[in-house]
Amino acid sequence: MIKKRKKKSYTSVYALGQYISMSAHKARRVIDQIRGRSYEEALMILELMPYRGCYPIFKLVYSAAANASHNKGFKETNLVISKAEVNQGNTVKKLKPRARGRSYPIKRSTCHITIVLEDISFYLSTI
């Protein structure tokens, strides 16, 4: 029995941000707005949204586009966010001192964000 290998997609580039100090739920709220949009449209949305989670996601999208133009030579006008996912990271647990010798637990959640950009000019040229 011969196994067929899945061909690599040479039209996609990604950027990965790990251990970003933000809960995965708050990051997903922003990521859902830009999934499937063009690169330039996503940057405009991220600049105008009022959430704190927009800035690290903005940096990741910008970094993925820089990877695409530098490593693969893609034009930024042809890039589309094909995949954007948020996974939960480690939770940093601390103790905050309180009155009368007590302590109060603090949980700082982190998340891992993956942004995948795809070049659509490849698909348009094959049609």
Provide a descriptive summary of the structure in words.
A three-stranded antiparallel beta sheet has the order 1-3-2. The mean pLDDT is 90. It is an alpha+beta fold and 127 residues long. It has a single domain, classed as Ribosomal Protein L22, Chain A, CATH 3.90.470.10. The chain has four helices and three strands, in the order βαααββα. A hairpin with a 5-residue loop joins β2 and β3. It is found in: Plastid, Chloroplast.
Keywords:
127 residues; 3-stranded antiparallel β-sheet; alpha+beta; Ribosomal Protein L22, Chain A; 36% helix; 4 helices; single chain
The CATH architecture term is Alpha-Beta Complex
- CATH superfamily placement: Ribosomal protein L22/L17
CATH topology: Ribosomal Protein L22, Chain A
Rg over alpha carbons: 19 Å
**Main pleated-sheet profile:** 3 strands, antiparallel
- How many domain modules? 1
> What is the CATH class designation?
Alpha Beta
Q: How many angstroms separate the termini?
A: 34 Å
GO cellular component, one term: chloroplast
Organism: Iodanthus pinnatifidus
Family: Belongs to the universal ribosomal protein uL22 family.
Protein name: Large ribosomal subunit protein uL22c
Secondary structure: elements and pairs:
Elements: E1 12-20, H1 24-34, H2 39-48, H3 54-72, E2 79-97, E3 103-119, H4 121-126
Helix pairs in contact: 2-3
Question: Would you kindly provide a brief summary of this structure?
Answer:
With 127 residues, the chain is of the alpha+beta class. Helix content is 36%, strand content 35%.
